Amino acid sequence: MADTDHFLSIEASVRQHMKKLSSQASINALSQELKSLAAIVQQFVDPALRSQYSTALRKLENSARDEVARFQLSQRDEIFKTTTSPLRDRSKARQKKEDDNSIATTLSRTKKQMEMELSRVAEINDTIVNDGKNLRTVGDEHDTLNNIMSSAWGVLKALSAQDVAERVMIAGATLFFVLSVFFVLWSRLPTFGLI
Question: Nearest-CA neighbor of 17 among 61, 59, 64, 58?
Fold first, then answer.
């Protein structure tokens, strides 16, 4: 986020230099600030954020290039100006004012779009962080359920073994009972005279 703030502060400075072009030194300062913006954009880790700011930087560079060309053209016109008329000067002043207003509206529109994109990127970042937390929570629950399932399988195996042991004991007891009854009957029947 510090890189984003640094980017925005340098961008504001570039826009001020674009409005106040007056010499080759100001053009050089503008160029240096654009280079520092490019370096900041390359430091962004998130590819989507880097792409977004690269696009904004290209737009800003195009605007700066147009403004420098306009400034150099006006400088050249002043050098080669042979005759000046008040009407021509007023027309140029009006045209310059219209150009300045057009540039100002374009820059403010670009700034608003960048602010909207920055807020959208911040919301996406928050969503990704929340999704990561949710995935970790689901992973922890899954691990807990795996542990519960493995312990349940152990309990089921123990119950199954106990069930088999109880069936064997019941079968043995039933066999003992039947054999005891037959023995009693076998030993009592001759006394009743049946055999």
Answer: 64
Which residues neighbour 11 within 8 Å (Cβ) at sequence distance 6 or greater?
37, 56, 60, 114
Nearest CA-CA partner of 7 in 50, 48, 64, 66: 50
Q: At residue 76, what is the residue type? A: R
* 47 — pLDDT class (breaks 50, 70, 90): confident
Digit-coded pLDDT (tens) for 171-186: 999 999 999 999 988 8
Bin 67: left if φ > 0, else alpha if -120 < ψ < 50, else beta: alpha
Q: How many folded domains does the chain comprise? A: 1
In a domain, 143, yes or no: no
Q: Could you tell me the residue range of the domain that residue 56 belongs to?
A: 2-131
3-state secondary structure 94-149: HHHHHHHHHHHHHHHHHHHHHHHHHHHHHHHHHHHHHHHHHHHHHHHHHHHHHHHH
